[in-house]
């Protein structure tokens, strides 16, 4: 009997509550690992283990009884997990699994190990899934008296060797969703100020068209009518692991202003294939009303303190003659509890953009420590013979806290070139 178990880096875990959602069970009941990958040859039996722990939190803690059952697992498009009876799914491994114990009593401060065995059928090949649900026998109650059942799932991902499947995917939906307009109705003023407008979002649905699972990542970029990139952002999801045949929703908020005009949204998705990625292009028209909505959403986020980095001033304006140069300053402050990796990029936009060689910003890449501050220098050099009048550009500051999420802050720069007397 051969044992081959590898712990995965990503998690398949859920804490399910009947009646209300909770983050942990009473008395510190926990299960590990939350996901493990099991590899077996056709006809082979392999072993795996699950540990159920009862962490001691107080002297009054008592022993807890739990039951264990093997279930099929499915994942919705938005990443929500659900569990069904064994063998109900085409990719189910649940009927191959047996547990040495289906009920346990765990004393405070102790852990119990449950061994499971899995026998792969001779005709099986590819990837299959199951989950061991650990349910606390003692039910709790919410503040309103609703009965609560606590469950924790440990995912078992099975690969039966003998045949490998390529990773394949395609983008089945890509759209920009805008928040509904605010409706003003005469009424009693609310007890608290209303929340600011929600940002618009780019929503992308990626479908796994093959049989091999993958962890997907993606980014969007938006180009203006002159093919200049004016916005980039990562696409995020609640659960990047996509099973064969499943679809997953990824989103990127449009969290900075864009002027009215015609744009193209470029989507690039990486699904761990060595030879291909999924791409999509979406025309985007931003009307003056939508441009104002984007401005309002960023301003509301700044006023609410939701942005991890504060940038002042919010806009730069300068008037200077052709042949002159000027140095402007931007002050950055880290309002988050983490260090921020930041980049500062020049964005050239508008009907009369500033010339590319006119503007430089330094530093272009830097780190803001917790509560740290930084000053950026923007140098504008107007060449001799530059056309008088209004010109525009912007500084785009991207702050990344080290995960998949990042925030973009756009600081517009208005330059008036004075006419020669």
Unreliable stretches (pLDDT < 50, length at least 5) are 1-27, 190-195
What composes the largest sheet?
Answer: 8 strands, mixed
What is the CATH architecture descriptor of the largest domain? Sandwich
CATH superfamily of the largest domain: Immunoglobulins
Count, helices: 1
Classified by CATH, the class of the largest domain is Mainly Beta
Task: Report the β-strand fraction as a percent range.
Answer: over 45%
SSE topology:
Blueprint: E1 5-6, E2 15-17, E3 29-32, E4 35-40, E5 45-54, E6 64-75, E7 81-84, E8 97-99, E9 103-106, E10 110-119, E11 126-136, E12 140-141, E13 147-148, E14 150-160, E15 169-177, E16 200-208, E17 214-215, E18 217-223, E19 229-235, E20 241-242, E21 247-254, E22 261-270, E23 278-286, H1 288-303, E24 309-312, E25 316-321, E26 325-334, E27 340-347, E28 359-362, E29 365-368, E30 373-381, E31 389-400, E32 406-418
Description:
The protein has about 425 residues and is mainly beta. It has three domains: about 160 residues, Immunoglobulin-like (Sandwich), CATH 2.60.40; about 120 residues, Immunoglobulin-like (Sandwich); about 120 residues, Immunoglobulin-like. The chain is about 5% helix and about 50% strand. It has one helix and 32 strands. Strands 1, 2, 4, 6, 7, 9, 11 and 14 form an eight-stranded mixed sheet that branches. The longest helix has 16 residues. It is elongated. The N terminus is likely disordered.
